[in-house]
Amino acid sequence: MSFSLTMGVYMKIAIDGPAGSGKSTIAKLLSKKLKFEYIDTGALYRAITYIINKEKIDIDNKKKITDIINSSVFKFNENKLYLNGFCIEKEIRKNIISQNVSEIAAQPFIRILLNKIIKSTSDNSENIIIDGRDIGTVVLPDADLKIYLDASSSVRALRRYLELIEKKEPVDLNKLEEEIIIRDYLDINRKADPLKKADDAIIIVTDDLNIRQVVDKIYNLLNNDL
Ligand code: CDP
């Protein structure tokens, strides 16, 4: 396989992996470096979880949830998610949302609605990076490059711990690792679009790599290093 970033060929990049593997940090930096559009699909699942929690909607109330999703405007501006014009970035990154999001994301009807939004954005973009759990397998099965980022649960928990501490949200490291393991389990074992490495994805294990090293690795892959 070979790519050329210089020939003006449009390119779609899929990045998947479990919680805390570094997908969104890497995807943001890479999209900046390449001047590609970027969709953080996890942010959309987090947004739906935020709405359902806030409005106290029963998960079985499919009609209400469907109506809300269909009448809401989700927009990314400088990689921050806006819901109907309001930035909800702070709210959706809270640990309470992380604790509840996998149950919501397992609902097939929610996945169908969000995938419609994600796919139409992707179809209207020339160059794009999308990160999530099912991007290489379901959303962009024909992506030009598929990356699967992975790391041990202890490293991923520590990364998330440091992020939350920096945001002054106190959490217990051991509990956070347990929550990450539960979320992995739910994401891998759900019926609808589970977390799965696409057969043609390239695995990058990030335990011993810093952010810059992962970005460089992917950038080198794009520059004919495959
Ligand atoms: O940032 P982190 O890795 O913790 O997760 P995220 O990318 O923000 O995704 C939050 C959750 O949304 C995941 O644990 C999945 O349950 C769900 N998700 C999904 O089901 N499919 C996607 N394409 C992206 C996220």
Our count of helices gives 10
- Which structural class do you get from the secondary structure elements? alpha/beta
Provide the helix percentage: 40-55%
User: How many discrete domains?
Assistant: 1
Give the CATH architecture.
Answer: 3-Layer(aba) Sandwich
List the defining traits of the structure above.
single chain, 226 residues, alpha/beta, Rossmann fold, 5-stranded parallel beta sheet, 3-stranded antiparallel beta sheet, 8 strands, 52% helix, binds cytidine-5'-diphosphate
Written description of the protein model:
The protein is globular and about 50 Å long. The protein has helices at 23-34, 41-54, 62-71, 89-92, 95-105, 108-123, 135-139, 153-166, 173-189, 211-225, and strands at 12-16, 37-40, 74-77, 80-83, 86-87, 128-132, 145-150, 202-205. Helix 1 crosses helix 10 and helix 8 packs across helix 9. The model has no long low-confidence stretch (mean pLDDT 93). The strands form two sheets. A five-stranded parallel sheet has the order 2-6-1-7-8. A three-stranded antiparallel sheet has the order 3-4-5, covered by helices on one side. It has one domain: Rossmann fold (3-Layer(aba) Sandwich), CATH 3.40.50. Helices cover 52% and strands 15% of the residues. It has 226 residues and is of the alpha/beta class. The protein is built from ten helices and eight strands. Bound molecules: cytidine-5'-diphosphate. Cytidine-5'-diphosphate binds next to helix 1, helix 2, helix 5 and helix 9.
